[in-house]
Amino acid sequence: MDNDKFLHEMHINLNVRGLKQSATLFINEQSNLLIEQGRKIYKLGLGQSPFPVPDIIVQSLRDHAEEKDYLPVKGLPALRKAISGFYSRHWGSEYSIDNIVIGPGSKELLFLLQLVYYGELIIPTPSWVSYAPQAKIIGRNILWIPTRKENLWKLTPHDLDKTCRQDPNRPRLMILNYPSNPTGYSYKKEELEELAAVARKYKVVLVSDEIYGMLDHEGDHHSISTYYPEGTIISGGLSKWCGAGGWRLGALAFPDSLSWLANALAVTASETFTSTSAPIQFAAVTAFDPHPELEDYLARARKILSALGKQCNKILNTAGINNPDPHGGFYLFPDFSNYRDKLIAREIYDSETMCKRLLDEKGIACLPGSEFGCSAFEYIFRLSYVNFDGRKAINAATNEEVDETFIKKYCPDTLKAMEEIADWFRSL
Ligand SMILES: Cc1ncc(COP(=O)(O)O)c(C=O)c1O
Q1: Residue to substitute in 111, 183, 211 for testing ligand 1 pocket (most ligand atoms within 8 angstroms of CB)
Q2: Does residue 9 surpass a pLDDT of 60?
Q3: DSSP state of 369
């Protein structure tokens, strides 16, 4: 290694506690290199909504382009009121506007929350890629609770109880994300009710990351906050259901009993990002207020994601893996461990190598399960089935039926990618 490179790597290690470049970035850079070389690459690595931001929200942003003042640290009062109304209307959860904090993306807010909360962090795995690195940057201890494929990777009340029982009075914060990134699965009402009972028993503070909640494929999302209102912080924002990841707007809603935590977080916000972009906050009021256009947009988005998720899964299952259909969001998390012997015969010993080979040999860019906390030796990966023209598809869904023909017409590349994956495994 030359001196400059050595110093550069040492600098990185010193500054971010040894965190390495994520596989997400690696796969992305590698994909771009291959694209430059003229290869056809199916980009299934990025978790971004394919759909455009709804017109009425874009118009609202235009109308507020001249808003230039700093806004209150916790956020524009009208927006906090709209978010409070949104949770009450959709999920029956009641949050006071004083306890809602707006930030530049929920990711930043989750980071600050971990910073100000003093307890231990519980994360069921597999889980979203950023929770753990955030805890690592802050120096927080993480307690992992592994889940099982047979249970659709969902946390069971039994496992939560077993974990908390070891030290029942320890202050804890647990992040529960559903519909899940990476798995695409969500919890049923009864499952949430049972988990809530255990969380209450041990006074665990829950961070319910419901950023994909409005993308439950049946429009039937339930929030654990309705069963454990006094201990649940809802995390959400505009990024997923509204196609506005780049707008950077997220929100945390705290129960009254945790208003001290909301206030502590606001102190750190005041010393870091100050307040979220003013025009974006004004436009977001339109997103969280009731509008028939938004209900209609969401209904179409759900139909497309549901039909496409099922169709993709059906193709993958032709390779004999029996993956159940997803419940929400836009991810699949297939497990190809029944190909273990054949993969090992090709010197593929872990999920990261499997993803590199899929990229090299089939042009499939996806993320290894190990990035989400699964064992590297389980042959699992995450696919984001969003590599299609979302604007064209959601517009067409206004007057065309969203069925298999529709999916073939508007998402051909996504289906082709699934065929390539299934082919690759079958030919091992
Ligand atoms: C599960 C989950 N939570 C939180 C986020 C952060 O979203 P944002 O910072 O855009 O609000 C993401 C984004 O990918 C996510 O998948």
Answers
A1: 211
A2: no
A3: G
